[in-house]
Amino acid sequence: MDTSPLVSIITVTYRAQEVLPLTLESVASQTLAGIEHILVDGASPDNTPGQIAAYAAQAPYPVRWVSEKDQGLYDAMNKGLAMAGGEWVCFMNAGDCFYTSDTLAQALDQATDTTDVLYGHTMMVDAQGRELGLRSHKKLPSSLHWRHFRQGMVVGHQALLVRRRIAQTYDLQYRYSGDIDWSIRTLKQAREIRHTGLIIDRFLEGGVSHTRRKEALKERWHIIRRHYGWLTALWVHLGIGLRFLLRGGKLR
Asked: Which of 157, 173, 158, 162 has the alpha carbon at shortest distance from 226?
């Protein structure tokens, strides 16, 4: 009898004691049977490891965790993937939450034997939990394809549920835009990609420094050129520059 979990929820943390409880409570509220929670902490000097240990001791489902130094966010996410035993994986990082208590149950109910990716919307929220609107600037594609990611993260990784067997490891040459590369490579392996029509998660909005934006754009250029070619990369980034100017020097 197979006792493997249905879904592995992977949470990466560092200095997250203020926001991690939101995520832990959200996972604990899920009505879906057969979850496991994987937590990868980067040796946080605050009480994050203590919160995780207390949570693991009382959770009614499997919780596996580690707290140790890593090479950054994507290295930690790779550790989480390596620890995951579920048929499906979902990244829900510290501060992020599932939209409702039955989100996973509703999403997985739509999967068929050939569905490899389930996706939906992300609701942006502020530090007080107030909804700021959907993350998507445009309507989500009704039939998502890896080519849609030439415009960037059209679907946030928190709003993707992926069969573990096709989930790729993150490329550690990237520090800020690796989600785009990961999504493209993972979706290339998918047989069927299904739009659930659901809001999957609440994403805690956070600021990104100007320096990091510049580095993220450099990485994005490399990723788009790698997967779609020079002409597409040039066209996409001309569009980014135009939107930057139209918004008065603000990138979104």
From this structure: 173
